[in-house]
Design goal:
The chain has helices at 15-23, 30-38, 43-51, 59-67, 71-80, 84-93, 108-111, 144-159, 172-181, 206-215, 232-242, 258-267, 285-292, 301-307, 328-335, 344-351, 355-367; strands at 4-6, 12-14, 97-100, 119-124, 133-137, 163-166, 190-192, 217-220, 246-249, 271-274, 296-297, 341-343, 371-374, 377-380. The protein is α/β, with parallel strands linked by helices. Helix 15 (328-335) crosses helix 17.
């Protein structure tokens, strides 16, 4: 049960307020915060020992201080500059919940993880944690086809009652969550982010961020007001993996951040699946290598449902393509694409047809939903069979 102490301002603050403050100190790494929580020492006692310069009075602080020279002094300086009451008010006014590892209210789904967050900030409904779950991740620099696949997977799995877990990043992550949100009465999504829950990153995803909080659950291990930082994204990947039963990688470069999540998933014994891509596409180099290394292929949502041990609902089976059939003059041009993105010059070169004729064909194929264009590049679209593409 949370303890309550009197703050110098006269306000009574719970233990969670001091846990939130400790989570916000620059020197508090996820490992250190986890050790502090697991020690069982109330966070208000830890905070007082820090601000008063008495780390030796708390065994876990003494241990951590001995591991890093100057840590206790740095913590003391930071803590003395922190207004705990103001931070707690910010948590409450934003509607955030704060859970401490080992205390009531902490999610069971994370409590037994190999590297659980010592303090977890959430916004939204914890009921999202009760569903079967699949994490969908991928590159921020996704192709149009990759975005379409991620959205379709998110939509169809959410419609089947599966919670989509992702990182709310640009590209594949955002597409998967948009697909999940587009499913009527679908399972609520979960997002794990690398900033405070009131600091939207990237800013272009503000609407998506708010929709996930409204329909599902946002999670972070840093308090409100914390800006995004490069080191927090690899750290949050372990939480993302811990909340999922299966990890699906849609597109990834050879050194993409998604492969860090694969490593976290492998440590936890999760099934890793990968969407096959063109051997000519840099966006699929990482996923194709995963397949070579033994990852299971995820061609559609049925593959993922089978991996979960669930029977596919009839509504999820492939539906008739509703796009108008390409005209005979356009079919040969469409076959040139395969899984590649091509410029107009490349299409002209490969087809050997005159520019006016090719331009008209490309226009018809784009209007019919067979091609998508991104700048100077044309790329073959997906099946057009419905869903969240």
């Amino acid at each position: 049960m949370s303890t309550s102490v009197n703050h110098p301002s006269g306000l009574e603050l719970p233990e969670e307020a001091y846990a939130a403050a400790l989570a916000g100190l620059d020197a508090t790494t996820p490992r250190r915060l986890c050790l502090l929580a697991r020690s069982g020492t109330p966070f208000d006692r830890i905070w007082r020992a820090l601000t008063e310069g008495r780390p030796a009075s708390v065994p876990v602080l003494q241990r951590l201080s001995s591991e890093a020279d100057g840590l206790a002094a740095r913590w003391q300086r930071e803590a003395q500059r922190t207004d705990v009451a103001a931070l707690w008010d910010r948590c409450k006014s934003h509607g955030e919940s704060v859970a401490i590892l080992g205390r009531p209210g902490y999610p069971d789904e994370l409590a037994d993880d190999i590297h659980p967050p010592g303090v977890l900030f959430t916004l939204g409904s914890p009921c999202a944690l009760r569903h079967r779950s699949v994490a969908i991740v991928g590159t921020r620099h996704a192709t149009a086809g990759g975005m379409e696949v991620a959205a379709a997977l998110g939509h169809e799995l959410a419609a089947a009652g599966i919670t989509i877990v992702s990182g709310l990043a640009k590209g594949i992550d955002g597409a998967a969550h948009r697909g999940a949100l587009a499913a009527d009465d679908g399972a609520p999504p979960i997002a794990v982010v690398g900033s405070g829950l009131d600091v939207v990153y990237p800013r272009c995803n503000r609407g998506l961020w708010e929709a996930v909080a409204d329909r599902g659950l946002l999670c972070s291990e840093v308090p409100p007001g914390t800006p995004p930082a490069a080191h927090r994204f690899p750290a949050r990947n372990r939480i993302l993996a811990a909340l999922a039963e299966i990890l699906v990688v849609v597109e990834s470069r050879v050194r993409g951040g998604s492969l860090l999540t694969v490593g976290e998933a492998s440590q936890r014994g999760l099934t890793v699946m990968a969407v096959p891509g063109s051997v000519r596409s840099p966006a699929s180099e990482g996923t194709n290598l995963l397949l070579v290394d033994g990852a299971a292929p995820a061609v559609d949502s049925l593959d993922v449902l089978v991996a979960l041990g669930l029977e596919a609902r009839p509504a999820l089976r492939r539906r008739r393509d509703r796009r108008p059939k390409p005209e005979p003059a356009d079919r040969g041009l469409l076959e040139l694409f395969g899984g590649d993105a091509l410029t107009l010059d490349t299409v002209l070169l490969r087809s050997g047809r005159p520019l006016p004729e090719v331009a008209l064909s490309l226009g018809r194929l784009e209007a019919g939903g067979w091609l998508v264009r991104a700048g100077a590049w044309y790329e073959r679209a997906g099946s057009g069979a419905g869903g969240a593409a």
